[in-house]
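Quick question, first post here. What does this chain look like in 3D?
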Amino acid sequence: MSLHQRETLTRLDAGLVLTDSGGIQEETTILDVPCLTIQENTERPITITAGTNTLAGIRSDQVIAAAIHILLGEPKPGKVPELWDGKAAERIVNILQSLDLGKGTVT
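> Answer (accepted):
Ran it through. Tokens below.
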């Protein structure tokens, strides 16, 4: 996802997003915005099982029905998945610091 897309999405005030982009599926989950993915499957299943994403399929009648359902006030409840807290780098550093890597110093 480009920086421009990310900046645009962080200002998003939408009732619904339709996409086929895995990155958008993740961002809408983080922002608690209902998302319909117009595909038969997704590489981001956590956005469906825990997040705000719904797999709508590729048939127009399925997509329209799912969109109407959400826009009439019945969005899928979602939550930000565990460990999606923006602290991955901190956890990685802590793990690396706890390893015995020959006790050398990093310069």
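The chain has one domain: 3-82.
The domain at 3-82 is CATH 3.40.50.2000 (Rossmann fold).
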